[in-house]
Amino acid sequence: MASPRVLVDTSAWIELLNRPDSPEKRSLDALIDSDRVALCGVVVAELLQGTRTKREFALLRERLAVFPLMETTHAVWQRAAELAFQLRRKGVTLPLTDLAVAATAMTNSLLVFAKDVHFDRIPGLRLYQH
Description:
alpha/beta, Rossmann fold, 4-stranded parallel sheet, 6 helices, 4 strands
């Protein structure tokens, strides 16, 4: 059985870009080498908005384009809304971007690689343990 793809969240990418010698960076390199990394639109947008120059924007866009992009379909948005609804009933409010990442992963049977503790609070989400 093949290992599942891993949707890498913005929080993990930022950590990895800022700490090139970290264990997380080595984990991401291994995921890339085994062709297991996936992205979604909200992660791409968040990463690109953080660039400082046109050149940096273009370079990062080109580098990210090699990874499969999971579509944010109507079903994904419905699932994100359901997660938000369930969590708010428990007094937990999470950013919509994190809920969209989680819903994308859950809809596509992916693991999530994140450094943001918000993801620990999402029921049914499978996290990548590096």
